[in-house]
Amino acid sequence: MPAVVKQRISRRPRPLATGLGEKGVLTQLAGRRLLVVTGKGGVGKSAVAATLGTLLARAGRRALVLEVDPRENVHQMLDVPPSGGDIVEAAERLFLQNLQPRQVVDQLVRDRVRIELIARRILASPLYHNFVEGAPVLEEAAILGHCLLLAEGRSRGAPPLDVVVLDAPATGHGVSLLSAPSLVSAAIAAGPLAELTGEVAELIGDTERSAVVVVTQAEEMPVTEALELRTELAARLDRSPELLVVNQLLPGGPPRPRAGESAAAKLWRRRRRLQDHEVGRLAAAWPGRRWELPLLPFDRGPELIEALAAAAAGQDA
Ligand SMILES: Nc1ncnc2c1ncn2[C@@H]1O[C@H](COP(=O)(O)OP(=O)(O)O)[C@@H](O)[C@H]1O
Ligand SMILES: [Mg+2]
């Protein structure tokens, strides 16, 4: 599958002016090669990955958002046709690619095994199929390997890039994804795959070249999982996330109870109270940078990303 760059079919809204604040986390992220956006499914990982890609592209970085999810939806957020595995140009300096995890492993074999006939034989062999299917860790390592090749201009047919924003797969745990390269490189002694996974493990271990962005919602389960992820990341990889994004916050101050209030008002009050409690829990246990993004009245589309980008940039000063 050649990674052909598709033309964008519609122009995005005119970019905002984008001087990055000196102290903002965006400035910090803009210097990295790889941003891994992780979190529980449905919290808004893809929306945040698209927002980060947009902001970085506007700040002058050539950014690619890599979505590894069969339910392709980042293209709608960026207002371009489905990627279907190709690299799509979504705006100036902004690219998008959607790959199935399995396609990533196959593409990696193609990238590493330069002789097409041999690559085809490997991909068609039952041994290869059984091997990949039985080892999810390989897929996870391959996803990060693909990111590294993209970010370093070593993926065939890809445009030159400064940064890859990985919208991490919803399945599995963020820490297992990030630990996969070192597990695989320890298990495979030699060969091109061992070399690549070794390089990826180094990239993940290097806090000057990679960053972890955790997305959550202000609800009990996602918050608990985000906190667990932070603890595990410290224990297993000795690093902390560079940014926590609390997404889909209900607007407005804490409403007061009123006599004779409707069931809807009561529900709203309760949800707001729970939300404040969960944001408080995060604020107490998460020392790093945090963005709080509102729940917006838009469908998944460019308006949503535009509004999230404005909200994020507003907090990043
Ligand atoms: N801040 C927000 N306001 C309104 N809708 C949002 C917001 N963030 C995400 N969404 C919507 O919620 C749904 C899930 O978001 P998505 O980014 O696809 O989640 P994930 O990638 O974590 O599964 C999508 O339809 C998306 O458009
Ligand atoms: Mg998604």
Describe the 3D structure.
This protein is of the alpha/beta class. It has helices at residues 25-30, 45-58, 74-78, 101-112, 116-124, 126-133, 136-151, 174-187, 192-205, 220-237, 263-285, 302-315, and strands at 5-6, 34-38, 63-67, 87-91, 94-98, 163-167, 210-217, 243-249, 289-294. The chain has one domain (5-315): P-loop containing nucleotide triphosphate hydrolases (Rossmann fold), CATH 3.40.50. Strand 4 (87-91) and strand 5 form a beta hairpin. Helix 4 packs across helix 7 (136-151) and helix 7 crosses helix 9 (192-205). It is globular. The protein starts with a strand and ends with a helix. Mean pLDDT is 88; it is low at 7-17. Magnesium ion binds at residues 45-46, 69, 167.
Can you give me a brief rundown of this structure?
The chain is an alpha/beta fold and 317 residues long.
Largest beta sheet: what is the strand line-up?
Answer: 1-4-5-3-6-2-7-8-9
Look at the helices and sheets and give the structural class: alpha/beta
Mean pLDDT over the residues: 88
Q: How many domains make up the coordinates?
A: 1
Q: What does the overall shape look like?
A: globular
Low-pLDDT segments, ≥5 res: 7-17
Cofactors and ligands: adenosine-5'-diphosphate, magnesium ion
Helical fraction equals 40-55%
CATH fold assignment? Rossmann fold
Give me the count of strands: 9
Enumerate how many helices there are, as a single number: 12
Radius of gyration: 20 Å
Q: Quickly give the CATH architecture.
A: 3-Layer(aba) Sandwich
